[in-house]
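Notebook B, p. 112. Complex prediction, attempt 2.
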Amino acid sequence: MSYYQRHVFFCLNQRANGEASCADHDAQGAFDHCKSRVKQLGLAGKDGVRVNKAGCLDRCAGGPVAVVYPEAVWYSWVDQSDIDEIVESHLRDGKVVERLVLPESVGR
Ligand code: FES
């Protein structure tokens, strides 16, 4: 049994050397929005959903990226409505948002 039902990690990494990084795509804004929606919907906490910051997850070319466990589903998104869909469909209802899934071939 997991402590959390679903655990989400958002890459918030910023690089200073000009290479692709998730912070260039307002990863912080998406993280903040996700946390706040999870809380508003009453999903946060033990046996529920936990949303955490992460450093580079080494899939920078697809940034911004986040990964949801235990399913190990990787997402990328465009705007906050995409985050809403991930929260409501996957984090709350357990249905993966296929259109936002990061292709397996995307790496650093
Ligand atoms: S900078 Fe986000 S995955 Fe590397």
